[in-house]
Amino acid sequence: MQRTDNYETFQELFSMNPLIANIDNLHTTKLGAERVRRNLRLDADDVVTWCKQQIQAPNCSALRKGKNWYAYINDCIITINAHSYTIITAHKIKR
Asked: Parallel, antiparallel, or unpaired for β 87-92 and 61-65?
């Protein structure tokens, strides 16, 4: 495999961000999905797919603090449990 952007392999790139590496493990509860829809005023039927797309966007930055990941994208923050990869909530950023 040819070198890409100073990384030996794509696996090396993904291993640098465990949230992206575990994107397929992302899930939520029924109440969690309702909370995200309500807080962000989302029309999306599938909240998990919407969150995955946001987290994988090039302008998303993710930060782990304690037991949670915080994904900052555009004008919102998505909170994800770092151990179970459960989407807990999302909020609009007040400016």
From this structure: unpaired
Query: From the CB of residue 45, how many other CB atoms can be counted at a distance below 10 Å?
Result: 9
Residues belonging to the chain: 95
Q: Which of 2-11, 18-27, 48-57, 84-93 has the lowest mean pLDDT?
A: 2-11
Provide the whole-model pTM.
0.81
60: phi > 0 → left, psi -120 to 50 → alpha, else beta; which? beta
C-alpha dihedral sign at 65, 69, 71, 77: negative
List pLDDT tens digits, range 58-88.
999 999 999 999 999 999 999 999 999 999 9
DSSP letter at 25? Answer: G
* Phi–psi pair at 41, nearest 5 degrees: 55, 50
